[in-house]
Each structure stands twice: as C-alpha cells, then as structure tokens.
Amino acid sequence: MLARQSPLNAPDRELHRFRFRVALAGFAVTAAFVLLIARFVHLQVVQHDYYTTRAEDNRISLVPIVPNRGVIVDRHGTVLARNYSAFTLEITPSKVDDLDATIEGLGTVIEVLPKDRKRFRRLLEESKTFESLPIRSRLSEEEVARFAANRYRFPGVEVKARLFRQYPLGPIASHAIGYISRINKRDLEVIEESEATANYKGTDHIGKTGLEQRYEFQLHGETGYEQVEIDAGGRAIRNLSRTAPVQGNNLTLTLDTRLQEMAEKAFGDRRGALVAIEPSTGGILALVSTPTFDPNLFIDGIRTDDWDLLNNSPDKPLLNRALNGAYPPGSTFKPFMALAALETGKRTPGQAISDPGFFNFGGHQFRDDKKGGHGSVDMYKSIVHSCDTYYYMLANDMGIDSIARFMGQLGFGQRTGVDIDGESEGVLPSPEWKKRRFRRPEQQKWFAGETIAVPVAATERQEETIRNLRRQGMPVAEIAQMTFIRRYSERQIFRICAGLEPARSHP
Question: Quick check: 227 and 239 in contact, CB under 8 A?
Fold first, then answer.
C-alpha cells in the first residue's frame, strides 16, 4: 500500500505559507507607517494653527485688570461714593489641598473671626473653585508683614491690593445712591443678558440698588488685560503686553447734600418721605425716605445680625418710601382740578360760588374744612384758601371721566420715570380703573360719591368722606382700596364710621 503524504512533510506548501505571512506583516507595517505619517501631516500641517493656539494658551495667560469705579458727587462736588485701596487676604480653593486646615493655620498668623469664615463659606458656595476669594479684608501693614513671613506655609493663599467702595456720608441719601455688593448668580444672569460677561472678568462687585444699580455699566468702566507668560506650575514669569483699563464715568447728581441732610434731620425719628424738585429744570434736589440705613454695611457682605436688624425692623429702613410708597395727593390736587376746569370750559377765573360750608349730594352732606364756609369763592380764592366746597361742586359738574382723562394727560397714575429702579405706579381713580382692580361686578360699580371725593380727599375732611361713602353703601373693603384712602385699614375705617377715631396719616 502506498502511504498518504502528511501536510507536515510538504516543504513547498510550508514555504508558501511563510512567505504569505511575511508579506502580510510587511503590508501591515507599511500601512501603519502610512497612517502614522498621515496623522503626523494632519497634526503638523492641517491643524498647525489650532495646536499653536493651544500651546500659546498653555504658555500665555490673560489676566483681567479691573477698572476703577466712577465716583458719585452731588451738584456742589461733594463726594457721595468713592474708592480706596486696601489689602485683602485671599484663597484660591483649587490650589489648596486641605481648605479647613489652611484656614485654621491662617488663624494662627492673622486674626480670622467666625464672621469671616462664615462669609468665606457663603462666597465659596456662590463662586467657582478656581476663583480667588477673600477670607479677610482691610489688612493692616503689620498683618501683611506677618503673612509675608509665613507665606511658604500656605500655597494658594496670597495678599492682594483691591479697591473698595466707600460712602463717606454714611446714611445720608442712601436710598437715592444705593450700594454695591458682591456679584451673585442672579447678577451673573443679568450680565450675560447684557452681553457684558467679558467686561466683568475679575470684577467682584456690582450695583445692587439706587443710582449704583441704574448706572452700573457707566460707573463700572472697561476691563483691561495683561498677557503673562507662565511656567508649567502656573506661576507668572514675565509680562508680555498690557491693555490698560478705562476708568468708569463719574456721576454728577442734581442732589444738594446740604438740603438732603437738613430734610432728613427734620424728620427725626418719624417715618416719611420727601422729594424736593427744582421747578426750572425738574432736577431732584432732595430725595428723602426715613428711617434710612448705612450703605457701607453691604459692600463686603452684610453681617447676619445687621441684616436681621434692618430687615426685621418695624420701621422698614430698607423701604424707599419716596419711590415705593403710594400716597394720596391731598389738596395739592386742587390746582390741577382748577386747570382742568379752565381747559374744559367748566369754570372761568372770575366765576364764583357761594360756600355755606358744605355741599349736599345724594341726600348726604360733604362738609368744608371751615365751619360756615368761605362765603363767595372764585377760582383764585378756592386755591388760596383750599376751599373744599368749590371742588365738590366742580367735580360734580366735570364728571369722573373728564377728570380722569385730563389728569391722565398730566401724568397722574403713571410712573415719573425717575432714574432709580423700583418706582411704584400711581393710581388714578376712574370707572375703568375699578373694573381692572376688582373682579366681582358689585365691586366694579362706580359710586357718584366717589367723584365728589376725588379732588379733596386726604384733607382734614377725609373722615367725613369715608363716612359719606359708607352711607352710600360702598363696602369697607372697597373704601380701604381707594387711592385717596388706602392708608387706612378696614378696622380703622369701621372705627372712623363709628366716630371712635379721627383719620390719621400712616405712611
């Protein structure tokens, strides 16, 4: 028998297989080299600019230079808001291994109070970890020297010179000037919406209220930049270039600080508001809201006890009564009623009425402030003596629609447009206003007695007006919502109608 030949004994076949494997390996190696060269060309030629930029970014750092904030002065040049330089001790959390241990160690070199630690923790929650955050502000020269001698112990901690805001007059005109404080998440959203993110790099504070808030972008200025070459550890080696910042614009107000201070002192401990306007220009000479507050408390983060004292006070010192309060105009409304009468032809200057001291309407008596009346009263006398009866009759003749239409043209019931945010809108009573204000049909009804009361409400006869409206069937809740009686609670109105207490002002 002939034996079958095994594949292992076929040298030609084995040689063929070997050559195939060598060729395949050679092809794989060649393909790998081709891919490597192609990748090299892609990186070195195609993406040359991209990686050059990345390398420069790793080598060069842009450091923002915060501009000096603009100064605020009054009409005479008295400084109301300014800047001063001071040293701060700051920590960059991303460069610190053990934050708690670092803070404890700093406490052995420089005094770090519990309030400082609490404020730092709050800032840490609101900020990014790579940002430099202050643990102590306004260091003395001795404290700076002590830290400098121990700096090697605290990587990620450094002393910086920063500008701080100061309000040298303290609480004077604080509601008008406002204050600045550290930027929070809500402020960042406003900055992003205004497309000013780049300009606020390195900025820690922003205007929160008053003119500081309204003119924030003008007062802030333009941020500058330094190109700094850094090493692998992130330490600066040398400055390459510098773009200087542009200082913020200074703000000159129409306020007269001397008049402002005089008016605030005149209020004493009483609550109230006052606005003094220069008739020739419309500029505000004084804007008073008492009690007031010290804006310096807010600059570096207000302490908890100070905030509780201001926020929980029954006097509400943080409330800007001049802008947020709504007050009846009282007899100051009468000259405008006289102007409306002239424009609509309802009265002439010499046309007189006989004032017996009251005006009967709908079976009810609307009394004048002077018992027995003022006798014969023309337009001139009605303004000089503030004659209620004259304007009771005039309101009845004009009608509420005519009154509302004319007063609307003069700006009543509208915002003034003063350059401080948060102004409340006034109320101009009319049937249309009641329909918008109330939901139920019975509440939307306009009473004829309301028309009579409009021009003379909030005078010394206001309690009588309240009683007359109540006699006409107007609900107490509606009377409390009237623009000229809104200072009174429903309980007070019940007591006035019962003759238990006189009408009083409660700002």
Answer: yes
* Res. 66 pLDDT band, cuts 50 70 90: confident
Distances, alpha carbon 10 to alpha carbons 5, 15, 21, 122, in Å: 8, 9, 17, 84
Q: Name residue, tokens 């992003």.
A: 192
Is 331 among the catalytic positions?
yes
Question: Is 296 within 8 Å of 310 (Cβ atoms)?
Answer: no
- CATH of region 330-497, choose from 3.30.1300.10, 1.25.40.10, 2.60.34.10, 3.40.710.10: 3.40.710.10
Which member of 132, 181, 289, 331 is catalytic?
A: 331
- 341 or 91, higher pLDDT: 341
Given a contact cutoff of 8 angstroms between Cβ atoms, the answer to whether 123 and 134 are in contact is: yes
Q: What is the pLDDT of residues 137-149, one digit of tens each?
A: 888 888 889 888 8
Q: What is the pLDDT of residues 416-456, one digit of tens each?
A: 889 998 888 888 888 888 888 888 887 788 888 888 878 76
DSSP 97: S
Q: Where are the domains of the chain?
A: 39-84+165-324, 330-497
More confident residue, 347 or 20: 347
CATH fold of 39-84+165-324: Penicillin-binding protein 2a (Domain 2) (3.90.1310)
Quick one: 109 exposed, middle or buried, by C-beta within 10 A (0-12, 13-18, 19+)? middle
- Which residue(s) pair with 229 in the sheet? 60, 238
Tokens of 142: 């001795």
Res 130 pLDDT > 60 = no
- 251 neighbors 215 (Cβ within 8 angstroms): yes
In angstroms, the CA 305 to CA 442 distance is 48
Cα–Cα distance list, 248 to 67, 215, 220, 292, 327 (Å):
7, 10, 5, 27, 37
So what's the pLDDT on residue 458? 42
